[in-house]
Specification:
five-stranded mixed sheet, 55% strand, 8% helix, mainly beta, 22-stranded antiparallel barrel, 57 strands, 1016 residues, 9 helices
Length: 1016
């Protein structure tokens, strides 16, 4: 690996030096031209360098590029039919650099075209906060965003880290996005405008840790619906945009390393004995399902006493050589290493590499960007707490009225867990501009994550018997892979009133492979003489092995047509389009366990003791017939307990047709329309539906045969009204009334019951689930008082019909399922401020370099619970209310930041703080509920550029050392459901620009003649 990285660094440095040398005496002029009134880009605008007779026409995005200009100072002329011509003086071209001029062209005040002359000033980039705030000001929807600039400043390692900085967004489990406190089911995720499938078998949500931060251009969160977007969201639609091709040659190479206070390299921690503490992994390796097992039908897994056909008729398998040898081969085919063992914490580290350029070919241009990133990290805690309780009503005086709660602790255990994660990702984007009015893009993304987990939970389990000592051991390995390919085109027809046509085709594939998840429950007993013994328990008893595979593939195609026209004397537009989308999922689970030989003694709870217990001399054939009479003797042997019900496949088809119009009504813009979405969700398991009527929610018919499954179809009309009132050039008032929905996922609706190692219980699907319909109402005031700065206040209200929640079925064994409840409401407000000290009227060197950021979301949710849940709650508390919090809803979300950026010296510092309020994570049915406690996080970042080509970055995350805590909702001392220390993480990294200063963007751009706080 070191050799490979050295070769990469040398190659990139040579390429950068070669490319830079060829352009060392010339520079490039580039930028974007937009309509000052509407903010729309202007394709086909003319750009001319005065005195050189050299120029260019802008493309579909209003972008232009003039390469190979000799160093010097120029005047540049910008013109477009019907708009004032603008001349920019003092444009400095520097050798090897790109000077960026972003221009706004406007109508003359007296309606007569003229010439406006301005001078070059400060830069505006589309991947900066200034550029994103400009987009927000012009957008039809209520939206929030984070740019590549802020992502870099915050030290985020992936999209999950980055999106936490967005107003109203929190991240659960380091992967799943909650918008405005609503659960991940109410968020939709897109990559470059296309919906993504999920690599999680149990959730709809996309795992945001799959996207390395170095690939991100920005993350935009839409909080109100317009008909040209998918209707399946309520909290927000999160669109992850990967980097587009640069306007000039660029390259980078970076390395970093770090550690956490809870996981210091070189110290001991728990590891999977098969995987060890190895770094990057591809494929299951020693955990793969053995060929002999995979090729053996389930019915051919035999007990020694099973009757088989022999030469002399039926006989027990242990008296038949072939059958006995089959049992022996199957029983010894899997590794005996079940439990975690002690290993040494590896060093955390990451690397990144990118290369991009744009090649001009006459009036056409070809651009590309390539990137590769890798990361290896380990985490550990040995002070975790795992608890379970049972609550009953207490009638102490026998009057039939509960006087209080009787709380019994059913489980109280310590929790130790080691986790290793390795990620490798790649990006390859290609764009081709054909003339000024046609552009084609091919975007590809690959991400592969491998996770190895080793866990031991030990303590008292009073469910088995009072004071029973139990140790659960588990090892789990998971590989997740995302591959996304998108081909899209954008075209404009100037001869048809500038008609715009855009299309895209997408193919995304996610895979999850969990080979040989191993679990065992070990009981310790002590007799009267003080001698201890160990036995294996569980249901079924004995070590359990799970092999799980999921593949989800999404195909989609979309077409959008936009026709500009004039209405009420101003520019308006009508937009129509459609979408076809199909998602295919296949899921399989093989489940095996050992039937135990009670004559073999288990010596303890360690990994070594379990490995000895399952050693070859104790498994399969232990004695030949000549040693044991006329039959084979057996130790432990393997049985296949796979359930047909837990193998399923499904398809999810969505079509869409929409129409919308954007009308100018003086200072008011009205965006009105509707989206029609027919959909069908079909899931079929391999289990036959016996003794169930064909009309049941749990039955589907395939080739004339009834199977357990479900088939749901809907036809939904989703109207939307968005209003934007311009109070001034820099201030908007927005209002929206929309209808959206949330559909059940494959896993939620599939008739599957599978063991969840993380919670220690079964997860049961519910084929009777209905989709959720949501009415949304939003109001926002926003003031873009200076470039890159904003003050905003928002209010929102949501009415959810048939929301879906995950509820606890059986508190003793931890089994959970999904249920609809009748209704839920969410009422909330958001506050956002992003200001430099200059925005507060201060002056001096720090005024424009020191920035404050603050966003706060407060929300109140109420859900009308089912009659069954209410009855269960009132058995414990006769005064229990018929409403409660919505699962996953936080009462508040707070993000705050203080950043310092001195571009002249290449110095940046940042302090970032975020916290989410106490939220309901698990619904007790019956009581008690489980809440996730607040876990405030404080992060510090710093970076320094030096020698013109190097940048040193350092970060400290979770400086406060906050723990993760889930607790029971009881009016007593806090009883933990799960708790562990996350530690403080430190990182130090170095990045190199191998072009050594050649072809780097210069700092220059131009204000419009009426430039305001929105900038250019």
């Amino acid at each position: 690996m070191r050799t490979l990285l050295r070769c990469l660094a040398l190659t990139v440095a040579l390429v950068g030096l070669t490319a830079g040398t060829s352009h060392a005496q010339t520079g490039t002029l580039a930028g974007v031209v937009v309509d000052a009134e509407s903010g729309e880009t202007l394709p086909g605008a003319n750009v001319l360098v005065v005195g050189l007779d050299r120029g260019a026409a802008t493309d579909l995005d209003g972008a232009y590029r003039i390469p190979n200009l000799a160093a010097g100072t120029y005047t540049v002329r910008y013109s477009f039919v019907g708009l004032d011509t603008q001349e920019v003086t003092g444009v400095q071209i520097t050798p090897g650099e790109t000077t960026t001029l972003n221009i706004e062209l406007a109508f003359a005040d007296d309606n007569e075209l003229g010439m406006v002359t301005v001078a070059a000033e400060a830069i505006i980039e589309r991947n900066t906060e200034v550029g994103l705030l400009r987009m927000r000001a012009r957008a039809a929807q209520v939206s929030d965003a984070i740019s590549a600039e802020t992502i870099s400043q915050s030290g985020a390692s992936d999209a999950a880290d980055a999106v936490e900085r967005v107003t109203g967004v929190s991240v659960q489990g380091g992967q799943y996005v909650f918008v405005r406190g609503l659960g991940d089911r109410y968020a939709n995720t897109q990559l470059n405008g296309a919906v993504l499938p999920t690599a999680d078998p149990d959730r709809r949500a996309v795992q945001f840790d799959l996207f390395p931060s170095s690939f991100l251009e920005n993350i935009v969160t839409l909080k109100t619906f317009t008909p040209d977007k998918p209707g399946s969201f309520s909290g927000g639609l999160v669109d992850i945009s990967t980097k587009s091709f640069p306007t000039e040659f660029s390259s980078s190479l970076s390395f970093s390393s770090g550690f956490a206070t809870s996981a210091i390299p070189g110290e001991a921690f728990l590891v999977d004995p098969v995987q060890g503490a190895s770094p990057f992994r591809f494929g299951p390796g020693g955990l793969a399902l053995a060929d002999v097992i995979g090729a053996t039908p389930r019915e051919d897994f035999l007990r020694p006493t099973t009757l088989v056909e022999g030469p002399n008729g039926q006989t027990q398998a242990r008296r038949d050589a072939a059958a006995s040898e089959r049992i022996d081969a199957l029983s010894n085919a899997l590794t005996p290493q079940i439990a975690p063992v002690e290993g040494t914490l590896p060093i955390n580290g990451s690397f990144g590499f990118s290369l991009g350029d744009q090649i001009t070919m006459g009036d056409n241009a070809l651009g590309f960007i390539l990137g590769l990133t890798g990361d290896q990290s380990a985490s550990f805690y040995d002070n975790g707490v795992y608890g379970r309780v049972e609550v009953q009503g207490l009638d102490s005086d026998g009057d039939g009225v509960n006087d209080g709660l009787a709380v019994d602790t059913t489980q109280s255990r310590s929790d130790v867990r080691g986790m290793q994660e390795a990620t490798l990702g790649g990006i390859a984007n290609l764009a081709y501009r054909l003339g000024s009015y046609n552009e084609f893009n091919l975007n590809t993304l690959f991400s592969h994550t491998a996770e190895s987990e080793a866990r031991q939970v030990a303590g008292i389990d009073n469910i088995l018997r009072e004071g029973a000592e139990v140790t659960d051991v588990a090892t789990k390995y998971t590989e997740r892979t995302l591959t996304a390919v998108q081909l899209k085109g954008e075209h404009q027809l100037p001869g048809v009133n500038d008609l715009e046509i855009s299309w895209r085709g997408n193919l995304s594939d996610t895979r999850m492979d969990q080979p040989d998840q191993r679990f065992a429950a070990i009981r310790r007993s002590v007799n009267e003489d003080g001698d201890e013994s160990f036995t294996l328990g569980g249901t079924p008893p004995g070590p359990q092995r799970y092999f799980r595979d999921l593949e989800e593939t999404l195909y989609s195609g979309a077409l959008d047509v936009t026709l500009p026209f004039t209405a009420f004397g101003d520019r308006a537009e009508a937009k129509v389009g459609g979408l076809l989308e199909q998602t295919e999922r296949s899921y399989s689970e093989r489940f095996f366990y050992y039937e135990l030989d009670r004559g073999v003694a288990l010596a303890g709870t360690s990994g070594e003791a379990l490995a000895d217990y399952l050693a070859p001399e104790n498994v399969g054939i232990t004695a030949e017939p000549e040693e044991a009479g006329d039959r084979y003797e057996f130790g432990h042997y393997l049985l296949d307990a796979t359930r047909d019900q837990n193998q399923y496949s499904g398809t999810f088809d969505v079509g869409a047709a929409y129409g919308m119009v954007e009308l100018p009504l003086g200072p008011l813009r009205a965006i009105i329309g509707a989206r029609y979405e027919p959909s069908r969700l079909f899931v079929a398991s391999e289990a036959l539906a016996l003794d169930l009527p064909a009309s049941s929610d749990s039955v589907v018919v395939v080739n004339g045969q009834q199977y357990l499954g479900t088939d749901r179809s809907y036809n939904d009309l989703l109207p939307a009204l968005n209003l934007v009132y311009s109070l001034s050039d820099e201030m908007n008032l927005r209002a929206a009334a929309t209808r959206t929905l949330a559909r059940p996922t494959f896993r939620e609706i599939a008739p599957v019951s599978s063991f969840d190692i993380a919670s220690g219980g079964a997860l049961v699907g519910n084929p009777a689930l209905q989709r959720t319909l949501i009415s949304n109402f939003d109001l926002r005031w926003e003031w873009f008082n200076r470039p890159g700065q904003i003050l905003a206040i928002s209010g929102f209200y949501k009415d959810l019909s048939n929301p879906i929640e995950r509820v606890i079925l059986d508190p003793e064994n931890g089994s959970t399922t999904y249920e609809n409840v009748d209704r839920a409401t969410v009422l909330g407000a958001e506050f956002e401020a992003r200001q430099t000290l200059a925005g507060f009227g201060l002056r001096g060197p720090l005024a424009d370099r020191l920035a404050l950021g603050l966003n706060l979301t407060v929300a109140n949710s109420a859900i009308t619970i089912t009659d069954r849940e209410l009855a269960a709650r009132r058995q414990v508390d006769p005064n229990a209310a018929d409403t409660r919090d919505l699962q996953g809803q936080s009462p508040y979300l707070l993000n705050a930041s203080l950043s310092y950026d001195n571009a002249d010296r290449g110095t940046a510092l940042g302090v970032f703080f975020n916290v989410a309020g106490r939220r309901l994570s698990r619904v007790g049915n019956p009581l008690p509920d489980v809440y996730e406690a607040p876990s405030p996080q404080l992060d510090l970042t710093a970076s320094k550029a030096f020698f013109g080509a190097f940048t040193l970055k350092a970060s400290a995350k979770n400086v406060l050392g906050s723990s993760y805590r889930e607790v029971y909702d009881l009016d007593q001392d806090v009883i933990p459901f799960q708790e562990y220390n996350r530690g403080t993480r430190f990182s130090l990294g170095l990045s190199l620009d191998p072009s050594f200063g050649f072809a780097r963007p210069a700092s220059a751009s131009v204000p419009s003649p009426s430039a305001g706080p929105l900038g250019n």
